Amino acid sequence: FPQRFHATLCLMISPKLQNLDRRKELLEQQQAKIQKQLDQLNQVKWQRLDARRIKEYWQKARETAMRLLADFREVEANFRQLDQSMRQQIAASGLNKGERTFMFEGL
After folding, report:
1. How far, in Å, CA of 17 to CA of 10, rounded?
2. Tens-digit pLDDT profile for residues 57-105
3. Any residues with CB less than 8 A from the CB of 23 and at least 6 apart, and which?
4. Rg from Cα positions in the chain
């Protein structure tokens, strides 16, 4: 789109490029594309939602958000548990810091 806009603008402004037939052709192409988009919009059946349906959609969205939040909390709890378990294993291994670093480089 930016290139077509620039080309059209150049045709409109630059005296060297003022070819009226070409300008008319570009404008007709743009008009055809816009008409196609309008036709597509007119084919869509728009329905106004009543208060009940709006409330139903809102409740579904809210329920989905709450389930997603619960899933994130579960993932966070699992991560914390794994982190704690790994820290306990490291502490119990008796390895010094250099040996632990070497051990985890292979992971």
Report:
1. 7
2. 999 999 999 999 999 999 999 999 999 988 888 778 777 776 666 665 5
3. 8, 11, 12
4. 32
| Chain Cα centroid distance, residue 46 | 25
Structure tokens at 51: 């208060």
d(Cα 5, Cα 29) in Å, to the nearest integer? 12
Instruction: Measure CA 73 to chain center.
Output: 23
pLDDT digits (tens, 9 = 90+) for 35-56: 999 998 888 777 788 899 899 9
Secondary structure letter of residue 50 according to DSSP: P
Dist. CA 22–CA 11, nearest whole Å: 8
Q: pTM value?
A: 0.44
DSSP-based three-state secondary structure for 1: coil
The Cα-based distances of 35 to 5, 7, 43, 98, 100 in angstroms read 17, 21, 12, 70, 68
Element containing residue 22 per DSSP (H, E): helix 20-43
